[in-house]
Amino acid sequence: MRIEIATLFPAMCEAVLDESIIGRARRAGIIDVRCRDIRAYTLDKHRRVDDKPFGGGMGMVMQAEPIWRCWQAACEELGHRPYTIYLSPQGRTLTQGIACELAEKAEDPSLFLLCGHYEGVDQRILDRIVDEEISVGDYVLTGGELPALVLTDCIARMCHGVLPAAAAFEDESHFSGLLEYPQYTRPEIWEGEGVPEVLLSGHHRNIAKWRRDESLRITKEKRPDMFAAYLAKNDQNM
Ligand code: SAM
């Protein structure tokens, strides 16, 4: 799995990518996630990468040329054209299903994630290189770095070897169209509160049944929209 994150703030991305499960997977060579500093590709002697918008208005716009040169360098190093995503509030809203689709593209050929900043990016470079735009929700952030990290994390944890077993993500909320059942850990009694008896029984079939019932109950309660979609898809009468 290879993911390139093109950003004006590589240190911000590296700080996150270096930690925890993703950091360990990178160090073990299970995933190859690299940050590319767009500023390193500017030809401007003052290392500028943005300018005022034509037509006037607030803020600055990221210029096409440094991004073009950055993307071309990535293509050359990779030896192929990566599937190119612009993180944008105007894109398809990220879901687990979309992350699964993109995880396949990250395996073959690879992903190039373009992070905008300021007012955004010159449209001409987007028209030239971008395959699709992905949003993390209907709100606006200062930059594409956090969305790129969200997308990378979501994809990388599904890569074989990053988590101990596929069940670690397949059982979780959203993967099957349901939310996950409640989880408990030691101590058995905390502040006078116990845990559901069945979880202490060691009876695997009963535990699985309890978890499934809880999954259905919680999804119905917290996300009636998801529950309806799940029923429609699975054609079940519950
Ligand atoms: N002017 C743009 C607009 O109104 O569509 C918003 C620019 S935003 C301030 C700066 C950058 O943050 C964008 O270029 C994009 O890369 C990123 N960004 C902001 N919100 C995002 C979201 N919800 N999902 C993905 N990327 C986002």
Helix/strand layout:
Blueprint: E1 2-7, H1 10-17, H2 20-27, E2 32-37, E3 50-51, E4 61-62, H3 64-78, E5 83-93, H4 96-107, E6 111-115, H5 123-129, E7 132-135, H6 145-156, H7 167-170, H8 204-222, H9 224-234
Parallel strand pairs: 1-2, 1-6, 5-6, 5-7
Antiparallel strand pairs: 3-4
Helix pairs in contact: 1-6, 3-5, 4-6, 8-9
Plain-language structure description:
This protein is α/β, with parallel strands linked by helices and 238 residues long. The protein folds into 2 domains: 2-156, Alpha/beta knot (3-Layer(aba) Sandwich), CATH 3.40.1280; 171-234, tRNA(m1g37)methyltransferase, domain 2 (Trp Operon Repressor, Chain A). The chain is built from 9 helices and 7 strands, in the order βααβββαβαβαβαααα. It has helices at 10-17, 20-27, 64-78, 96-107, 123-129, 145-156, 167-170, 204-222, 224-234; strands at residues 2-7, 32-37, 50-51, 61-62, 83-93, 111-115, 132-135. A 5-stranded parallel beta sheet has the order 2-1-6-5-7, with helices on both faces. A two-stranded antiparallel sheet has the order 3-4. Helix 4 (96-107) links the parallel strand 5 (83-93) and strand 6. Helix 1 runs parallel beside helix 6 (145-156) and helix 3 runs parallel beside helix 5. The chain starts with a strand and ends with a helix. The structure holds S-adenosylmethionine.
